[in-house]
Structure prediction request, 290 residues.
Amino acid sequence: MGAPAMGLGLPRCEDEYVPPSGWLHERSGGRLMDVFPRAHVRWALQERRLRVAYQPILRADDLQIIGHEALARMLTQQGSVLDAEAFIDVASEIGLEPRIDADITSQVMSAATRPGPFAASHGKLFLNCSSAFLLQPSCVEQLLDHHRRWLEAWPGVPKDSTPWVLEITERHLDTDPGRLQSNLAPLLDLGFELALDDFGSNHSAFPYLLELPIRYLKFDKTLVQAAADNQRGAQILRRLHDMAEDLGIIGIAEGIERKEQLDKVRAIGIVWCQGYLWGQARGLLDMPAG
Prediction:
């Protein structure tokens, strides 16, 4: 949909690379057994084979959809669809995650200017963004440009109203939050909001809570699922929710797959939720990106 952002050069693919036989379907415990071929990330970017899938975010009490999270998907040359977890770590290792972020955010924000099931008029749109992407001035300018186009497409929308939520995952909290906030200032001034993803996983996000105007806290799915199965997990999730509530931050429970998990989230008081209980993430994956 949107053109790649300037300043995000794409490394050349290895000319003679041949993927190992059967790498696509070899899994163990839900994880790919073989390392995802680096060249395939480059090829997918060059051939415009990244797509968006949307997962609904709902109010826990009445299950009304209040927004969607945009998730990256990759079409293989054979026509299969890969979830981001299959390739995003490799993309990060070789410095191409900002290019993926640029491609996906461009697709989402361009689509939001047109009527459709995932238009911005249908609620908040959560965009996964690495700190490496958000620290590049050209990437921020790309987001600003798409926002301006969105305002032009929907002239009745107040200029300070925006559906965009930049979702920063905890595995990317390797940047000085003050520097990140300074770079994001033009977006925040226009009403862009920030979310911390995977809160309660392996890394500490508290410096970001201290210095960034975080509006949403997405509780890690492993913790959410554990809360439904044991008392200790429930106590931890409840304390994190209480902290978010005290800070005026909206908590979002990720990874809801069973009714028991939804019941626990409701009992704790978490107001928003998402997960496969309401079906797989969906989107127009069979449509060309350009």
